[in-house]
Amino acid sequence: MIDYGDQLKIFDPEAFAWPVHLVGLGGIGSAVLLPLMKLGIKDLVLWDSDEVEPHNIPAQLIYRPDDIGMSKAKAAMDFVERQGSTCEVTIHEEHVTSTSELSGVVIAGVDSMASRMGIWQAVKFNPLVPFFMDGRIGGEQFQLLSLNPSDFDAQAEYEQWLFPDEEAAELPCAARTVIHPPTTLAGLMVAQLTLFIRKESYRSNIMSDLKTMQFSTT
Description:
Order of helices and strands: EHEHEEHEEHHEE
CATH topology: Rossmann fold
CATH architecture: 3-Layer(aba) Sandwich
Strand content: 15-25%
Structural class: alpha/beta
Shape: globular
């Protein structure tokens, strides 16, 4: 029996009725999966069409060398099962598109604007999605956008951060990421989620450069 008593004033899993859809199981998704599970989320829905590759092992938290060649969705589900978690896990070995059925909390951790736009079309004005988080990483920098996707003002603010992939900033060679940006971002995602559940104010836009230790929030 798992005892969540120490955290109940911060997050009570029994009071959380929504599923959490985790879209993308790379650096961000693999990092936030563990704290979501430890928090006591009961219903996890995992989306990713990719397979685990050798270069994923250093910066993607949950994968082992034995997982290379396995689908990330299946490897992530196996990880949850190995931890002895009682949460129900559903996997989709595919991309989210505008017609995908999403409900509850949706967390995007994808690596292209095209993928983000597909996810956005699936959550925008979706009455079954009360809270959406979009995490982005490049090198030692990250950004976290959090919103109710049915709120008009929040939509307008978020859509300022959607643009074609060819307009995205070029990263320095070999600077996609290392382990500390996604794990830091994962902690902030869980913090934002707990604030949302307690109906407290959360930040709509958090940006950080971990190389200089500079943070900005709105």
